[in-house]
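pasting DOCKER domain-containing protein for the record, 246 residues
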Amino acid sequence: MVTQSELDPKLAYIQVTHVTPYLEKTELEDRQTDFEQNHDIDTFMFETPFTKDGKARGNPEEQWKRRTILKTEYSFPYVKKRIKVQSRRTTELSPIEVAIHEMHVRVQELEDVVFMEPTDAKKLQLLLQGSVCVQVNAGPLAYASVFLDPALCNMYPEDKVEELKDIFREFLKICYSALQVNGKLISQDQLEYQEVLRQNYKKLCTSLSSLFGESLWPHDETGSFKRNSMALFSAISGASQNSSTA
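structre below
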């Protein structure tokens, strides 16, 4: 974060950052495709991580984010490459809200690659490997251990805790779907790798089930959630065909 009082008034400063399109939930309902979500956009955002003690990064329970939302005078794309910023507002995400946002992003990334045709096997495996990590201090389990542990969760707003639990349920289901698709893609020499992923996923389910106080192991028929079972069947069938013709 830039502290204006610490800047030399005799100098001119340029801050360079990367922005992404910002859409409210109601807008996302109307903009379903990647093109719609990246075309005719006049609102953008960038996020700055921070902690209360001044460091940029910290443990999950310390990690805050400052979200800066910019609205431009006209929509992109435009005849000019630069458009004047018309308004600016900032909001702060608390540590549990940061966890909710990060898990939402992870679920969306997994959904995109699972239902992509043809399947990007390398991207799928990279996402799977990072998602089923069972280290307590890394990956999704780090968020669960901090915010969903029965001994700790009463420190956070109940509605946020429930929202994070719901996202984790979705997360486990889409990971299960990703494992199914990957199982159809791999060659004979990757069977051991697939088994390692499956065992890590099983450990993740066991750890989360303990925190939730309920069984979170998905059944075959619940491997897909927001999209219907035919979409998952098509994805798996497509992966199987791509594997057999490779």
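DSSP finds eight helices and four strands in the chain.
Helices lie at 25-30, 34-38, 95-114, 121-131, 140-147, 158-185, 191-212, 229-245.
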